[in-house]
Amino acid sequence: MADVLVSYYSRSGATELLARRLAEQLNADLEPIRPKVAYDGGGALKAVWDALLKRTPALEPGRDPAAYRLLVVAGPVWAGRLSAPMRAYLRGPGQRAKALAAVWVSGSGQRYGGVGGEIQSLCGRPLVASASFAEAEVRKGEADARLAPVVEAVRGQVPA
Asked: Is 100:119 a contact under the CB 8 Å cutoff?
Protein backbone atom coordinates (compact mmCIF):
# COMPACT_ATOMS: atom_id res chain seq x y z
CA MET A 1 0.00 0.00 0.00
CA ALA A 2 1.17 3.51 -0.84
CA ASP A 3 1.50 6.41 1.63
CA VAL A 4 -0.77 8.63 -0.49
CA LEU A 5 -4.33 8.06 -1.68
CA VAL A 6 -5.70 10.06 -4.60
CA SER A 7 -9.50 10.00 -4.44
CA TYR A 8 -11.36 11.58 -7.32
CA TYR A 9 -14.79 12.13 -8.76
CA SER A 10 -15.10 12.64 -12.50
CA ARG A 11 -18.32 12.91 -14.47
CA SER A 12 -16.84 13.71 -17.88
CA GLY A 13 -13.40 12.12 -17.56
CA ALA A 14 -11.23 15.25 -17.32
CA THR A 15 -10.75 15.03 -13.55
CA GLU A 16 -9.98 11.33 -13.87
CA LEU A 17 -7.18 12.14 -16.35
CA LEU A 18 -5.70 14.63 -13.87
CA ALA A 19 -6.10 12.27 -10.91
CA ARG A 20 -4.42 9.41 -12.79
CA ARG A 21 -1.50 11.65 -13.73
CA LEU A 22 -1.17 12.83 -10.13
CA ALA A 23 -1.30 9.28 -8.77
CA GLU A 24 1.39 8.17 -11.25
CA GLN A 25 3.70 11.02 -10.26
CA LEU A 26 3.17 10.35 -6.54
CA ASN A 27 3.24 6.56 -6.76
CA ALA A 28 -0.10 6.76 -4.97
CA ASP A 29 -3.13 4.52 -4.74
CA LEU A 30 -6.03 5.74 -6.89
CA GLU A 31 -9.66 5.53 -5.79
CA PRO A 32 -12.73 6.76 -7.69
CA ILE A 33 -15.52 8.31 -5.64
CA ARG A 34 -18.77 6.69 -6.71
CA PRO A 35 -22.16 8.20 -5.90
CA LYS A 36 -24.85 5.55 -5.44
CA VAL A 37 -26.91 7.41 -8.06
CA ALA A 38 -24.76 8.38 -11.06
CA TYR A 39 -24.80 11.78 -12.78
CA ASP A 40 -24.28 10.20 -16.21
CA GLY A 41 -26.16 11.04 -19.36
CA GLY A 42 -28.84 13.61 -18.60
CA GLY A 43 -27.53 14.04 -15.06
CA ALA A 44 -25.76 17.31 -15.86
CA LEU A 45 -28.70 19.45 -14.75
CA LYS A 46 -29.08 17.46 -11.53
CA ALA A 47 -25.34 17.82 -10.96
CA VAL A 48 -25.54 21.61 -11.21
CA TRP A 49 -28.55 21.80 -8.88
CA ASP A 50 -26.90 19.51 -6.34
CA ALA A 51 -23.77 21.70 -6.40
CA LEU A 52 -25.74 24.95 -6.06
CA LEU A 53 -27.84 23.57 -3.21
CA LYS A 54 -24.77 22.01 -1.54
CA ARG A 55 -26.34 18.56 -1.47
CA THR A 56 -24.37 15.50 -0.42
CA PRO A 57 -25.35 12.34 -2.32
CA ALA A 58 -24.86 8.89 -0.81
CA LEU A 59 -21.60 7.25 -1.85
CA GLU A 60 -20.48 3.69 -2.43
CA PRO A 61 -17.90 2.56 0.16
CA GLY A 62 -14.23 2.87 -0.77
CA ARG A 63 -10.78 2.87 0.78
CA ASP A 64 -10.29 4.46 4.18
CA PRO A 65 -8.19 7.66 3.93
CA ALA A 66 -7.10 7.12 7.56
CA ALA A 67 -4.93 4.23 6.34
CA TYR A 68 -2.74 6.72 4.40
CA ARG A 69 -0.38 9.49 5.44
CA LEU A 70 -1.97 11.92 3.02
CA LEU A 71 -5.14 12.19 0.97
CA VAL A 72 -5.30 14.12 -2.30
CA VAL A 73 -8.83 14.84 -3.53
CA ALA A 74 -9.59 15.71 -7.13
CA GLY A 75 -12.96 16.85 -8.36
CA PRO A 76 -14.82 19.01 -10.81
CA VAL A 77 -16.29 22.42 -10.20
CA TRP A 78 -19.96 22.65 -11.14
CA ALA A 79 -21.57 26.08 -11.50
CA GLY A 80 -18.62 27.61 -9.67
CA ARG A 81 -18.95 25.30 -6.68
CA LEU A 82 -17.46 22.11 -5.36
CA SER A 83 -19.27 19.17 -6.92
CA ALA A 84 -21.82 17.36 -4.77
CA PRO A 85 -19.97 13.99 -4.75
CA MET A 86 -16.78 15.75 -3.58
CA ARG A 87 -18.71 17.55 -0.84
CA ALA A 88 -20.21 14.22 0.29
CA TYR A 89 -16.77 12.59 0.31
CA LEU A 90 -15.20 15.42 2.31
CA ARG A 91 -18.03 15.33 4.85
CA GLY A 92 -17.70 11.54 5.10
CA PRO A 93 -14.52 9.53 4.49
CA GLY A 94 -12.41 12.63 3.86
CA GLN A 95 -12.88 13.63 7.51
CA ARG A 96 -10.52 10.79 8.46
CA ALA A 97 -7.59 12.09 6.40
CA LYS A 98 -4.41 12.80 8.36
CA ALA A 99 -3.27 15.43 5.84
CA LEU A 100 -4.99 16.77 2.76
CA ALA A 101 -4.22 18.27 -0.65
CA ALA A 102 -6.70 19.12 -3.40
CA VAL A 103 -6.99 19.81 -7.10
CA TRP A 104 -10.10 20.75 -9.02
CA VAL A 105 -11.09 21.08 -12.67
CA SER A 106 -13.33 23.73 -14.20
CA GLY A 107 -15.02 23.38 -17.57
CA SER A 108 -15.13 27.16 -17.93
CA GLY A 109 -11.44 27.56 -17.21
CA GLN A 110 -12.02 29.91 -14.29
CA ARG A 111 -9.86 29.25 -11.22
CA TYR A 112 -12.57 29.36 -8.54
CA GLY A 113 -10.20 29.99 -5.64
CA GLY A 114 -13.07 29.70 -3.17
CA VAL A 115 -13.22 25.96 -3.79
CA GLY A 116 -9.99 25.44 -1.81
CA GLY A 117 -11.47 27.36 1.11
CA GLU A 118 -14.63 25.26 0.97
CA ILE A 119 -12.56 22.06 1.04
CA GLN A 120 -10.58 23.31 4.05
CA SER A 121 -13.78 24.29 5.81
CA LEU A 122 -15.42 20.91 5.19
CA CYS A 123 -12.39 19.03 6.52
CA GLY A 124 -11.42 21.44 9.27
CA ARG A 125 -7.74 21.48 8.29
CA PRO A 126 -5.47 23.45 5.99
CA LEU A 127 -4.50 22.07 2.62
CA VAL A 128 -0.90 20.96 2.15
CA ALA A 129 -1.24 22.03 -1.50
CA SER A 130 -3.97 22.96 -3.95
CA ALA A 131 -4.40 23.94 -7.57
CA SER A 132 -7.17 24.70 -10.04
CA PHE A 133 -7.12 23.50 -13.64
CA ALA A 134 -9.08 24.23 -16.78
CA GLU A 135 -10.66 21.19 -18.37
CA ALA A 136 -9.10 22.14 -21.73
CA GLU A 137 -5.54 22.13 -20.35
CA VAL A 138 -6.09 18.74 -18.72
CA ARG A 139 -7.51 17.19 -21.90
CA LYS A 140 -4.66 18.61 -24.00
CA GLY A 141 -2.05 17.16 -21.59
CA GLU A 142 -0.87 20.64 -20.59
CA ALA A 143 -1.42 20.38 -16.82
CA ASP A 144 1.91 18.90 -15.71
CA ALA A 145 3.77 22.19 -15.24
CA ARG A 146 1.12 23.52 -12.86
CA LEU A 147 0.70 20.12 -11.23
CA ALA A 148 4.42 19.99 -10.30
CA PRO A 149 4.15 22.26 -7.20
CA VAL A 150 1.34 20.08 -5.84
CA VAL A 151 3.42 16.94 -6.39
CA GLU A 152 6.45 18.50 -4.68
CA ALA A 153 4.41 19.74 -1.71
CA VAL A 154 2.85 16.31 -1.21
CA ARG A 155 6.23 14.59 -1.49
CA GLY A 156 7.54 17.00 1.13
CA GLN A 157 4.84 15.80 3.54
CA VAL A 158 5.41 12.09 2.93
CA PRO A 159 9.00 11.03 3.65
CA ALA A 160 10.42 8.46 1.24
From this structure: yes
